[in-house]
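call fold target=B12 binding protein
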Amino acid sequence: MRRFSISDIEGLIGIKAHTIRAWETRYNLVPPKRTVTNIRFYDEEDLKMLLNIVALNENGYKISKIAKMSLKQISDLVTQLKTDWNNDQVQVLNLADATLKYDEENFSKILSGCIKEMGLIKTMDVVLFPFMKRVGMLWQTGTIDPSHEHFASNLIRDQIIVCIDKVKKPHKEEPKRFLLFLPEAEMHETGLLFTRYLLKKCGHDTLYLGQEIPYNDIKKVIGSYQPDYAFIVLTSLNLGKDVNKIIEKVMDCLDVPLLVAGSLISEFDILVKDHLVPLKNVCDMVEFLEEI
C-alpha cells in the first residue's frame, strides 16, 4: 500500500497542509499513521477519506458536520455527488482517485459521463485541463509515478479520438488548412487532439503529425502541405522558462502564422512577435477558430 506525506496529500486533494492538520486537531478527522521512527504518513484509505471530505466540503457541507457523520453516511453522500457530472470540482477529485488506483473502468465512466452531460469543450475547460495540470505537477514532484500520468493521458486521448470520429465535418466555403504538431521535447498530445476536434467541428482541414516532430521535418512538411496556419501546444513543465526559445525555433521553420496553446502559455510571459497568436485558454481557442 502506498504511503503519502502531508505535502503529497496537499497536492493530490488541493487543500493546504495546515487545513488538514486543523481538521485533525479540532475534529480528529483522518489522523495520520506513524512509522516506527515516528514519521507521520497517510495510506490509500486515508487519501480516499480525505478526497470524500473535500468533495463534501466543497459542496456546502461544513467540516464540523462531516466530522459527526459515519463512514457510511459520508460514502453515500459522495456517491450521490459522483453522478452530478456538471460538478467539475467533484469530477476532478474522482479522476484523481481513479488514476491513483489505475481504475480504468471508473476513469472512463467519469470522463464519458462528463462529456455526455457537458460536451467535450466544457469538459476540457473545467475538468480535464485542471486535472491534467494537477497530475503534471504531482508527476514532476514525484508524488505520483509516471505510469499514473500515462494511464490518465492515454484514456483521455482515447475519449477525444472517439469524439473526433463522431463529428460530422460541416461544409465550409473556404476552409483553412492547419498543420498540427508538437515540437521536439513535447509529448503531451491531449491539447493538440482537442484542437483537431475543434477544427473539424468548424469545417477546417488538418494535417495531424503528433508528438516530437524534428525541426527539419517541419520545413519539409510546410513546403509540401502549404498550410494557412501552424498550431502547437506547449505543456511540458521541463520546458519551463525556455518556452520562448521553443516558439522561436518553431517560427524559424515557418512562413505561416503560428498558433500556440497549452498551460505554459498562460504561466509564462510570451514575447510579442509578428505572426504569433498565443491562445491562453479554451475560450480563446474556440473564439479564434470559429472566427477565421
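return ok
The two ends are 52 Å apart (CA to CA). The CA atoms of residues 261 and 279 lie 5 Å apart.
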